[in-house]
Design goal:
Udp-n-acetylmuramoylalanyl-d-glutamate--2,6- Diaminopimelate Ligase, Chain: A, domain 1, elongated, 409 residues, 5-stranded antiparallel β-sheet, Alpha-Beta Plaits, 15 helices, 48% helix, alpha/beta
């Protein structure tokens, strides 16, 4: 919210602008109240600062205070005129005009708390549509493909908003999926509440630990964070990844119906290209969902190795066709007999095609594992002992793992 918009409201008619009219375009994020010059360092950028003059009650000390507040890039100053500062000195007025720094006077009998409370309400209510607008623009950039045109609103926001003007950034994405073992077929009575609780915990954790250039963006059951290169470099990368894993472990321990996964895209240059990092993070999250929870390497797209051949293949129809030719017969058999053989095959590959290890993981007798493999060979007309056949099926499974179910419709 800008100062010029704020003072139009009826509650702020008691403020009189005495200096710095040219600076009314300054934004206001919150309020602060200081009485000691040494406390000016605690003022945040874009704070509107209130002074009673209880301590700085002479011209020199007041001017020093105003200068210190100005140095902190505050929005402006409100001086309560009364027993301590009866009249704002000419030197202070001149400083405000010379530096386009708004200075207001306020009657002594008006409670500062009344004004700051009203100010806070206006900032918060004004923030909601602003955040919604920023979120809409960020969604457009995240979902944008290389050749897509941007809306005029997105272009204007890019030019006018410093939040969107970073040089290099990457996406960290968290996705809330139905638990692979206990899929949620129908929305539970508290389904929405469970998801919102997960998202609240995510936001609380990320905002407390990391500096974010932009707001988190909600995309259905995903929440996306954009972190600049400068911000990322403030942290030890390995420690950051371990922290993300610990957060996932905590969330997945407390939520039996859902598995929360994460993915981290590569750095890209500018907001215009953030969509590529988002797509990479999406792929990494899908691949991580098939990995053990403590697999730290699987979080990053740069570590997905051979999956990149699939993720970066722009001929999506050829991938769909290959999957259909290779696994359609097994998929149809699963649907007809509710056999879960594709899931079994995934576990077989996860266990490095080791029969004993697969049996231990799935609590199956060795002979049952062999029976299922023979059944798959019969349905697909392949020989699992043949490396070429094995790789062909593995590739089809990999295509399935990095694409949404709708991709195969």
């Amino acid at each position: 919210m800008k100062l010029k918009d704020l003072i139009r409201h009826a509650e702020f008619k008691i403020l009189t602008l005495v200096s710095g009219k040219s600076g009314l375009d300054r934004g206001v994020k919150w309020t602060a109240s200081v009485e000691l010059i040494t406390h000016a360092e605690f003022i945040n950028e874009h704070d509107l600062v209130f002074i009673t003059g209880f301590v700085v009650n002479n011209e020199i000390s007041l001017l020093q205070m105003i200068y210190s507040i100005y140095q902190q890039k505050a929005s402006g100053v409100v001086i309560a005129t009364g027993p301590y500062i009866q009249k704002i000195p000419d030197s202070v007025i001149k400083f405000g005009n010379d530096n386009d720094f708004p200075i207001f006077s306020m009657p002594w009998d008006v409670k500062i708390s009344t004004v700051t409370h009203a100010l806070a309400e206006h900032i918060l209510f004004d923030k909601i549509p602003y955040e919604e607008e920023i979120n809409a623009v960020l969604k457009e950039y995240l979902l944008r493909k290389e050749d897509d045109d941007l809306s005029n609103n997105a272009r204007n926001m890019l030019n006018d908003n410093a939040l969107l003007s970073f040089k290099s950034a990457r996406v960290i994405l968290f996705a809330i999926n139905s638990h692979p073992v206990m899929p949620v077929k129908e929305a539970l009575p508290n389904d929405s509440l469970v998801k919102e609780t997960i998202i609240y915990k995510l936001n609380d954790h990320i905002n407390r630990l990391y500096y974010l250039t932009t707001l988190p963006v909600r995309l259905d059951d995903r929440i996306v964070y954009i972190i600049t290169n400068e911000s990322w470099n403030q942290y030890n990368e390995n420690a950051l990844l371990k922290d993300v894993l610990a957060l996932l472990a905590n969330l997945n321990y407390s939520q039996s119906d859902y598995r929360v996964t994460a993915g981290i895209g590569n750095f890209c240059s500018g907001i215009e290209n953030i969509g590529s990092s988002y797509r990479e993070a999406s792929y990494a999250a899908k691949i991580y969902s098939k990995k053990p929870l403590d697999d730290i390497l699987a979080l990053r797209y740069s570590n997905v190795k051979y999956y990149k051949l699939i993720c970066e293949n722009n001929n999506r129809n050829s991938l769909k066709e290959y999957y259909s030719e290779t696994l359609a017969a097994l998929e149809n058999y699963d649907k007809t007999h509710n056999s879960g053989l594709i899931g079994f095959l995934e576990d077989f590959f996860t266990c490095n095609c080791n029969i004993n290890e697969t049996g231990q993981k799935l609590f199956l007798h060795r002979n049952t594992v062999i029976y299922k493999l023979k059944k798959i060979e019969s349905i697909l007309k392949i020989d699992i002992s043949c490396m070429e056949d094995l790789m062909a099926v593995w590739l089809a499974i990999a295509i399935k793992n990095v694409n949404d179910p709708a991709f195969f419709d």
